[in-house]
């Protein structure tokens, strides 16, 4: 081999190897590029192919001698070197047009690539955009924080406003399923109600009426009001319901907003008031009947207007005393000992030691208590005028007994006067007191009443039906 030929082949080999290394390096570098246009990418790709093929073409002549030397035993006819050389030049010729095209595309790509100034301008623009995005993000975060605080404060104000009240606020979608609820009524679980309709929560009849009212709101877009009655065990619960639509931004109906106010206590108060008014009317009629009877009986037995006024006033005060006791005990049964003391006390002149009471704790119901009070008043008034209270030594004992073995249906009351002046039976027709006790009182108590005028003192025995007694 000629020296110059050897140098040329070595040079070709070095250039070919360099081109192959450049192609491999370009492949590694291209992975880091991200801003080339599609044509630029094709140019770079073809450039890499060109470099690789050119390197191979240049390496083939330099390696043909090596191949011929080591492979000649396999080809004794000496065809290897010529065929390899021919293949190398043919490959170089084929690669040459592609190389030209690749160079043109690379130049085009290079022209399209931005300059350093352009890159710096783009970076600066990107930085400004990033800064604006940061400012926008900060502003949005501040707005979201402010809005979140407003929503939280509104929620807290609503919770505070609804706390310890009987007001429930809720929202339902177009299918009338609960999506939001605050201050659910006692006995209802808000978490359970979410996602359900009223017909899944309330009794059938109640749910039908409620669903119908709310559906009308969705159909008409108008507010609806109504009363909902819920059966809760043996108790009826009442709710005043107001439902109105709420809308999307485009004005379409998104669902309904409802406010339910439980008015059960108000209904119960109204019912109690009606009951009290009915009772007052009944009692007023009874009182008027008693007053008319007192007035009529007093007038028949009075010899003058002054005597009538004095007697009527005393009996009216006795009736008022009994009613004061009834008011004090909410017009329920009153203790018998209190009734006795109230009627006798005005005639004791402060000497309450002259009155002795004994008996178990019992109460007399309202209507018979008024009649019994009048009878006790008449006995005490007669005792002051003619009996044990007409002097300073007389005593009055009032005792009562319950004897289930002897008579389980009767309360026995005994009025006994002693240590007073000797008593004589009346010679004139029975007065108001005796008539009141033995006739009117006996009927009112569904029992019996008898006055005995014993020389040592008056004794009155009164039997009261247990239907008028509370123990």
From TrEMBL:
Residues 116-150 form a coiled coil. It comes from the Bacteria. The chain crosses the membrane at residues 6-30, 42-67, 87-111. The keyword Nucleus does not apply. It catalyses: ATP + protein L-histidine = ADP + protein N-phospho-L-histidine. SMART domains: HWE_HK. PROSITE patterns: PAC (PS50113). Residues 222-275 form the PAC domain. Pfam families: HWE_HK (PF07536), PAS_4 (PF08448). One of its GO terms (molecular function) is ATP binding. Its EC number is 2.7.13.3. Keywords: ATP-binding, Coiled coil, Kinase, Membrane, Nucleotide-binding, Phosphoprotein, Repeat, Transferase, Transmembrane, Transmembrane helix. PANTHER family: HISTIDINE KINASE (PTHR41523:SF7), TWO-COMPONENT SYSTEM SENSOR PROTEIN (PTHR41523). This is histidine kinase. It comes from Candidatus Filomicrobium marinum. The lineage of its organism: Bacteria, Pseudomonadati, Pseudomonadota, Alphaproteobacteria, Hyphomicrobiales.
């Amino acid at each position: 081999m000629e020296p110059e030929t050897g140098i040329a082949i070595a040079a070709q080999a070095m250039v070919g190897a360099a081109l192959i290394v450049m192609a491999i390096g370009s492949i590694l570098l291209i992975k880091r590029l991200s801003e080339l246009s599609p044509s630029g990418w094709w140019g770079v790709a073809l450039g890499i192919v060109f470099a690789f093929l050119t390197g191979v073409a240049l390496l083939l002549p330099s390696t043909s001698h090596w191949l011929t030397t080591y492979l000649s035993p396999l080809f004794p006819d000496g065809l290897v070197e010529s065929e390899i050389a021919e293949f190398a030049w043919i490959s170089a010729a084929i690669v040459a047009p592609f190389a030209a095209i690749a160079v043109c595309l690379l130049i085009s790509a290079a022209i399209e690539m931005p300059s350093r100034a352009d890159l710096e301008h783009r970076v600066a623009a990107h930085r400004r955009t990033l800064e604006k995005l940061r400012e926008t993000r900060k502003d949005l975060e501040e707005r979201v924080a402010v809005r979140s605080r407003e929503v939280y404060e509104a929620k807290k104000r609503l919770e505070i406003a609804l706390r310890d009240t009987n007001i429930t606020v809720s929202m339902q979608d177009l299918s009338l399923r609960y999506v939001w609820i605050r201050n659910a009524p006692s006995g209802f679980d808000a978490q359970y109600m979410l996602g359900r309709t009223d017909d899944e929560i309330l009794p059938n009849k109640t749910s039908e009426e409620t669903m119908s009212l709310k559906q009308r709101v969705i159909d008409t877009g108008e507010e609806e009001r109504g009363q909902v009655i819920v059966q809760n065990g043996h108790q009826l619960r009442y709710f005043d319901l107001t439902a109105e639509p709420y809308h999307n931004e485009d004005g379409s109906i998104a669902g309904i907003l409802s406010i339910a106010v439980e008015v059960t206590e108000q209904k119960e108060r109204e019912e109690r008031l009606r009951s009290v008014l009915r009772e007052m009317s009944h009692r007023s009629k009874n009182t008027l009947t008693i007053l008319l009877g007192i007035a009529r009986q007093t007038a028949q037995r009075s010899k003058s207007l002054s005597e009538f006024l004095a007697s009527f006033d005393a009996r009216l005060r006795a009736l008022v005393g009994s009613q004061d006791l009834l008011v004090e005990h909410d017009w329920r049964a009153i203790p018998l000992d209190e009734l006795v003391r109230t009627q006798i006390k005005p005639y004791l002149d402060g000497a309450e030691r002259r009155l002795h009471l004994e008996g178990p704790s019992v109460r007399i119901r309202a209507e018979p208590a008024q009649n019994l009070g009048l009878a006790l008043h008449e006995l005490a008034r007669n005792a002051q005028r003619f009996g044990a209270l007409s002097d300073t030594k007389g005593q009055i004992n009032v005792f009562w007994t319950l004897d289930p073995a002897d008579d389980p249906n009767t309360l026995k009351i005994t009025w006994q006067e002693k240590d007073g002046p000797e008593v004589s039976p009346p010679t004139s027709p029975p007065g108001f007191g005796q008539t009141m006790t033995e006739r009117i009182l006996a009927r009112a108590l569904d029992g019996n009443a008898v006055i005995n005028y014993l020389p040592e003192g008056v004794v009155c025995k009164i039997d009261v039906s247990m239907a008028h007694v509370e123990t």
